[in-house]
Write a structure and sequence with these properties.
Number of helices: 39
Oligomer: single chain
Structural class: alpha/beta
Number of domains: 5
CATH class of the largest domain: Alpha Beta
CATH architecture of the largest domain: Alpha-Beta Barrel
CATH superfamily of the largest domain: Metal-dependent hydrolases
Shape: globular
C-alpha cells in the first residue's frame, strides 16, 4: 500500500535514511514497499539491499516534480522500467526543461497522477493511475465522472515517522527555500498526513473504498525489481573480443618490458605472464587497456601523468606505461591490486596536471560515448556548524547570535525557545544528504547505457554525473577510473617546456631509474633542498627528510607514508625514525611482527602492512583483511561487518595465545591508520614524482621555480618561490612593458614576473597591451604606449607604480604627471579605429621630484603582494642579532635571539585543548628555520601576520634537526612609508 515513500535522498525534504525506512516497515509487518525519491534515484540500491535483508519486496521509482509542484509518480515494473525512468529523468535534468503534466508513453512503468490532474487530463492509459489520499475523499465526488474505479489507487505518501519528524521536514524545506520557518509557503512542505501509518490504520481509513486497496496491492504486486549486482558493469572489451584484448595487452606489456628492463629479464617476464593470466581470468583486460588508452591520448597531447594507488603494484601497469613504479624493486605484490579475495573492484588513480584534466575527461566522453560515460557523484551532507548556522537563519536569528550559538553552545542552548529547537533538531540532521556534487576524479564507463543504472544530471563544467557515489557504484558492479589533477605535474611539464625552448634540451622525465642514481638529486635530498618539489616541500616533510637523513628512493617511499597523520598521530613516526637510525635496538612486540614487518622496523607504515598483520598475525581471511584495510582507509560503509571483523580479531588473537595487552596494542596501531594510510605503491608513485621534480630543480633550478610560479604555486605562495629562484642566482624583475607576458618568463638568469601577479590590473588591460605589442611591436616611449593602448587613469597608474615603464628613463612621479596630463589636459579627438587620443607630443618642464627606494618597496608590496628586495631592509630598527639559521645546530641548549621573516605557521590544539603553533621562517641570508610555540607563549606572543619578527628562544635538536622553542616574539615595525606625509605608517605586509 506504500507506493510513494521518500528517503532523505529526497534532499532537504525526506527525513528517513533508506535503512530507517525499511526498518520501520519491517516493524509494521509491511511486505512490499516503494521508494520514490524526488527527481533522484540515489537511495535505490541501498533501499533494495535493506529490503532483501528484511524480507520485504522492494519497488523502485521516482517522484517527478517541478520545484514544489508534483507532476506524477513512476514505479518501475522491472529493470527495463527502471531504465525508462532514468532515461526520462536524465533528459529533463540535462536539458533543464520542466516536466510536462502528462508522462511519456512508458512500456514498463506505472504512472500515478495526483487527483488534481483530472481537471485537465482524464484519458488515462492502461499503465496510468490516479492516487487518492484519505484526506481527498471529498474530491472523488468532484471527479467521479472522469475516474474509473479500477484507475484509483490508495495514496499514502511517507515522508516522516511522527510529529517531531514532521517538524524536521519543515525545517529542511525552509532551508531549501532559504526562508524563515514562519514564512514557509504551505505548498513548499508536505501535509501532516504524510507519516508512516500502520497498515491496519490505513485499511480502516480506506474501508469504504476497498477497490482502491486492491488496485494498489495489484499494482505493487506487478512490480519486481531484480538487479544483478554480481556481473561487472564496465565496458567489457576494448577491441572486439576478450581474446583480442589479451593479445593487445600482452604485446604492449612485452614491448614495455623491453624498455623498462632490457632483454632477457626472466623475473620480469615471469611476473608479467602471471599477471596477464589473472587479469584475463578476472575479466579486467579492457580496464587496463582503457586506462592505457587514456594515457596514450594524454601523451599524444604532450601531457604528463602519474599512475598511483594500488594499481602501481602491477608489473603490467608498469610495463605499459600506466605507472612509473617498479614492482620488483619495491617487492610489491600484484594481489594487493587484483585478487579473487579482494572485496572491492580495483581502480587506477591517474593524476594529470590541474589545467589538463578537463580535456582528458572530455576525450573519455567522446571516445566511449556520452550515453556510456558519467562522472561519479558524492553526497555533500549536513555537518557540524553548518547545521546550526542554517537552522539559525531559518529561525531568523541575527548573525552575531548564530556565531554565539556555535561558539558557546552550553551557555546559549536554553536561552529561548528558538535555541532549544535548534539544539533539538540539529543532531537529527547530521549526515543528511544536502546536495549532489562531483567526486574528486571517479569516472564510470559502462557496457550498457548509463541510464540502465542511474539518471544523469548536469554539473557546471558540462560533464554529467550519475546520482550515486563510489560505494553504490561498487555495489552495482562498477570499477571506476580515477582521473585526478594536481599542480605538481604542471610544474614538471612547464619546466620541461621551458628547458626545451630556452636550452634546446629534450628531457625524458620518465627516466626515473637514472634519477634514482643521480648524485645531484641525492644531494638535494641530503640538504633537504626540496622547495617546489611535489609532496616533499612542506616544512613537516623537509623536517622528516632531515631527521631520516634521507638520501635514496626507498627511504623517501617510506617517508611519503609515515608523514601521514595516522602514522604520525599514533607515535609510530617517531618510533620509525628512532629504529631507522638504530635498527639493532629494535624490540619487536611479538616474533610474528618481526617476521612480517622487518622491512619497516616493526612499524606498520603501509596499507599492505595492515593486510599482512590481519591475515598472518590475527588469522583473518584475506577477504576480511581487505575489509579491514578499506575501513582503515575510510572506504567501507558497513559498520556491522566491520564490527564483526573487529570482534573476530580479538577472538582469534586469544585462540592463538596472544596476551590481551599485545593484541590491544597491535590493534591500536592498526586503528591509528584510520582514514590516512597509503598503500606502498601509492607512496612509491609520489616518491617518483618527487624525484622527477628534484631532477629539474637540481639541473634547472631557476626554470623550475618559474614553472612552479606559473602553475600558481604549491605549498607556499609566489613570494617564496621567487625568493627561492633568487637564492639560485636569478635576477627578479617586476613586470615590464616590453618584456613581461601574461605569465612569468625567464631569459638567461633574469625572471620577468607576469602581468597576472599585479593586483587590480584587469585582464582586458593585459590583453590590450599584449595585442598591441604583438601587432605593432615594442613600445618606444610612454607617449607611444598611451597612444596605442587606451587605458583608464587607474589602470595606467597601477602600471606606473609597479615600474612597468622604467626602461623609458622617467621616474614614477614624472610618469604619473604625464598620465594625468594626457587624460585631463590633452585635447580629445574623435576616435579613429583603435585610437583614443590624437595629439602632438609636447614637452613640459616639471620641478625636481625626489624619489626614495622605499617607495618602490611599498608599491611592490601593495601591487605584487611582496617586495622584490629583502624584507629585512624594510624594518625600522637596527637588528641586534646577526644569527643565522645555519648556526643553530651549534647552539643546542642555549638561549638565542634571531630575526626571521615569517613564511607560514600551523596552529594546532593540544590534547588538553590548548592552542599552540609551529612556525617557519627565513633568516636574513634566506635560510629556513623552524619554531615551536607552546601554549603559554603563543598566548602572550601570537603571530601578527606576515612580516619580520624578532624571536628569542632555546635551541633544541632532534636527530640532527635544530629548531627553536620560542620564549618571546614580537613583530618588527616597518620604516616610514615615504609616500605618506607626516608620521603615518603603512604596514603593507598585513
Amino acid at each position: 500500500m506504500y507506493l510513494n515513500c521518500h528517503s532523505y535522498y529526497s534532499m532537504r525534504y525526506g527525513t528517513l535514511s533508506p535503512e530507517a525506512l525499511v526498518e520501520h516497515a519491517q516493524k509494521l509487518g509491511v511486505k512490499r514497499l516503494a521508494l520514490t525519491d524526488i527527481n533522484l534515484i540515489s537511495g535505490v540500491y541501498d533501499f533494495v539491499k535493506e529490503c532483501k535483508a528484511a524480507g520485504i519486496e522492494p519497488v523502485v521509482g521516482v517522484e517527478f516534480r517541478n520545484g514544489d509542484e508534483l507532476r506524477y509518480i513512476c514505479l518501475a515494473q522491472n529493470t527495463e522500467g527502471f531504465a525508462e525512468i532514468n532515461q526520462h529523468l536524465s533528459t529533463h535534468l540535462l536539458t533543464e526543461t520542466p516536466f510536462a503534466i502528462q508522462a511519456p508513453n512508458f512500456n514498463n512503468v506505472y504512472v500515478i497522477y495526483p487527483i488534481e490532474v483530472l481537471s485537465t487530463y482524464n484519458r488515462l492509459k492502461p499503465h496510468e493511475y490516479v492516487g487518492v489520499g484519505h484526506w481527498q475523499f471529498n474530491a472523488l465526488f468532484r471527479f467521479r465522472s472522469q475516474l474509473e474505479p479500477e484507475k484509483a489507487v490508495a495514496w499514502q505518501p511517507v515522508t516522516f515517522l511522527d510529529r517531531p519528524n514532521y517538524n524536521l521536514h519543515r525545517l529542511l524545506r525552509a532551508i531549501d527555500h532559504n526562508a524563515l520557518l514562519s514564512k514557509l509557503p504551505v505548498t513548499a512542505h508536505a501535509t501532516v498526513h504524510e507519516h508512516f501509518m500502520p497498515p491496519a490504520e490505513l485499511l480502516k481509513l480506506f474501508e469504504a473504498y476497498p477497490e482502491m486497496i486492491l488496485n494498489t496491492e495489484r499494482l505493487l504486486g506487478n512490480c519486481e525489481f531484480v538487479f544483478d549486482n554480481e556481473s561487472p558493469k564496465n565496458k567489457r572489451v576494448f577491441t572486439s573480443s576478450a581474446a583480442d584484448d589479451l593479445e593487445l595487452l600482452q604485446k604492449l606489456a612485452y614491448d614495455g618490458m623491453l624498455y623498462r628492463y632490457g632483454k632477457g629479464h626472466k623475473e620480469a617476464k615471469k611476473r608479467v605472464d602471471r599477471e596477464l593470466g589473472i587479469i584475463n581470468e578476472l575479466g579486467f583486460g579492457s580496464y587496463f587497456l582503457i586506462t592505457w588508452d587514456i594515457i596514450r591520448y594524454a601523451r599524444s597531447r604532450g601531457y604528463y601523468h602519474v599512475g598511483r594507488g594500488s594499481g602501481a603494484n602491477s608489473m603490467v601497469a608498469y610495463c605499459v606505461g600506466i605507472t612509473d613504479v617498479d614492482p620488483i624493486e619495491l617487492d610489491l605484490y600484484f594481489e594487493r591490486f587484483i585478487n579473487p579475495h579482494r572485496t572491492s573492484p580495483p581502480d587506477f588513480d591517474i593524476d594529470f596536471s590541474w589545467d589538463e584534466r578537463d580535456e582528458i575527461i572530455d576525450y573519455v566522453f567522446k571516445r566511449y560515448g556520452r550515453d556510456h560515460v558519467s562522472l561519479m557523484a558524492t553526497y555533500n551532507t549536513f555537518k557540524g556548524r553548518s547545521i546550526y548556522r542554517e537552522l539559525g537563519k531559518v529561525f531568523g536569528l541575527p548573525k552575531p547570535e548564530i556565531d554565539d550559538l556555535i561558539n558557546n553552545p552550553s551557555t546559549v542552548q536554553h536561552r529561548n525557545e528558538h535555541t532549544q529547537y535548534i539544539f533539538k533538531y540539529a543532531p537529527m540532521m547530521i549526515n543528511f544528504p544536502e546536495h549532489l556534487s562531483i567526486h574528486a576524479g571517479g569516472i564510470l564507463i559502462s557496457e550498457e547505457p548509463m541510464y540502465r543504472y542511474s539518471a544523469l544530471q548536469p554539473m557546471p563544467k558540462g560533464f554529467p554525473i550519475c546520482q550515486f557515489d563510489m560505494y553504490v557504484a561498487e555495489d552495482v558492479g562498477f570499477a571506476k577510473f580515477d582521473v585526478l589533477s594536481q599542480r605538481g605535474l604542471g610544474h614538471i611539464k612547464t619546466c620541461v617546456d621551458i628547458v626545451r625552448e630556452n636550452h634546446k634540451v629534450n628531457i625524458d622525465i620518465h627516466a626515473v631509474q637514472d634519477f634514482k642514481r643521480d648524485p645531484k638529486i641525492r644531494q638535494k635530498l641530503v640538504e633537504h633542498e626540496t622547495m617546489g618539489a611535489f609532496y616533499v616541500e612542506s616544512p613537516a616533510m623537509r623536517q622528516l627528510i632531515w631527521k631520516l637523513r634521507c638520501d635514496n628512493y626507498l627511504t623517501l617511499v617510506a617517508a611519503s607514508s609515515i608523514i601521514r597523520p595516522g602514522v604520525s598521530a599514533s607515535g609510530m613516526m617517531q618510533e620509525y625514525i628512532k629504529r631507522h637510525h638504530n635498527p639493532a635496538s629494535i624490540s619487536y612486540i611479538h616474533p610474528k611482527m618481526e617476521e612480517l614487518l622487518q622491512e619497516t622496523y616493526g612499524v606498520m607504515v603501509y596499507q599492505e602492512d595492515v593486510i599482512k598483520v590481519a591475515h598472518h598475525f590475527a588469522g583473518l581471511t584475506l577477504a576480511e583483511a581487505d575489509v579491514l584495510r578499506r575501513a582503515m582507509s575510510g572506504k567501507y560503509r558497513s559498520k556491522k561487518e566491520f564490527q564483526r571483523i573487529v570482534d573476530k580479531w580479538f577472538v582469534n588473537c586469544r585462540e592463538r595465545g596472544y596476551p590481551d595487552d599485545i593484541a590491544k596494542e597491535v590493534w591500536r596501531q592498526i586503528e591509528s591508520f584510520s582514514g590516512y594510510s597509503f598503500s606502498k605503491a601509492h607512496s612509491a608513485s609520489f616518491a617518483v614524482e618527487s624525484y622527477q621534480s628534484l631532477y629539474l630543480k637540481a639541473y634547472y633550478p631557476r626554470e623550475f621555480m618559474v614553472a612552479v610560479i606559473n602553475n600558481f604555486g604549491g605549498f607556499y605562495n609566489t613570494e617564496m618561490y621567487a625568493h627561492e629562484a633568487s637564492r639560485y642566482g636569478a635576477k627578479l624583475e617586476a613586470p615590464e612593458i616590453n618584456q613581461s607576458l601574461y605569465l612569468t618568463r625567464i631569459e638567461d638568469r633574469t625572471i620577468w614576473l607576469g602581468w597576472i601577479h599585479i593586483q587590480g590590473l584587469e585582464s582586458r588591460s593585459i590583453d590590450a597591451m599584449l595585442k598591441s605589442r604583438t601587432d605593432e611591436g615594442d613600445f618606444v616611449s610612454f607617449q607611444d604606449f598611451v597612444h596605442r593602448v587606451p587605458l583608464g587613469l587607474e589602470q595606467m597608474s597601477i602600471l606606473i607604480r609597479v615600474g612597468a615603464f622604467r626602461s623609458f628613463g622617467l621616474s614614477k612621479k614624472e610618469l604619473l604627471w604625464e598620465a594625468h596630463f594626457f587624460h585631463y589636459k590633452a585635447p580629445k579627438a574623435v576616435s579613429q579605429g583603435n585610437e583614443l587620443f590624437e595629439w602632438e607630443e609636447q614637452k613640459f618642464e616639471l620641478p625636481p621630484l625626489e624619489s626614495h627606494w622605499l617607495e618602490d618597496c611599498y608599491d611592490e608590496m601593495e601591487l605584487l603582494g611582496f617586495p622584490l628586495d629583502s624584507p629585512f631592509k624594510l624594518i625600522a630598527e637596527t637588528p641586534t642579532s646577526k644569527l643565522t639559521a645555519s648556526e643553530l645546530i651549534h647552539l643546542v641548549g642555549k638561549r638565542v635571539a634571531i630575526y626571521g621573516y615569517m613564511v607560514t605557521y600551523k596552529a594546532i590544539r593540544t590534547k588538553n585543548h590548548k592552542n599552540m603553533a609551529f612556525g617557519y621562517f627565513i633568516d636574513h641570508e634566506g635560510e629556513f628555520f623552524d619554531t615551536t610555540h607552546f601554549p603559554q607563549n603563543i598566548e602572550k606572543y601570537p603571530f601578527r601576520g606576515k612580516g619580520v619578527y624578532y624571536i628569542e628562544g632555546k635551541v633544541v635538536e632532534e636527530y640532527g634537526f635544530p629548531s627553536l622553542e620560542v620564549f618571546f616574539m614580537r613583530k618588527c615595525e616597518l620604516k616610514t612609508d615615504p609616500r605618506v606625509s607626516g608620521n603615518a605608517r603603512m604596514n603593507a605586509l598585513n
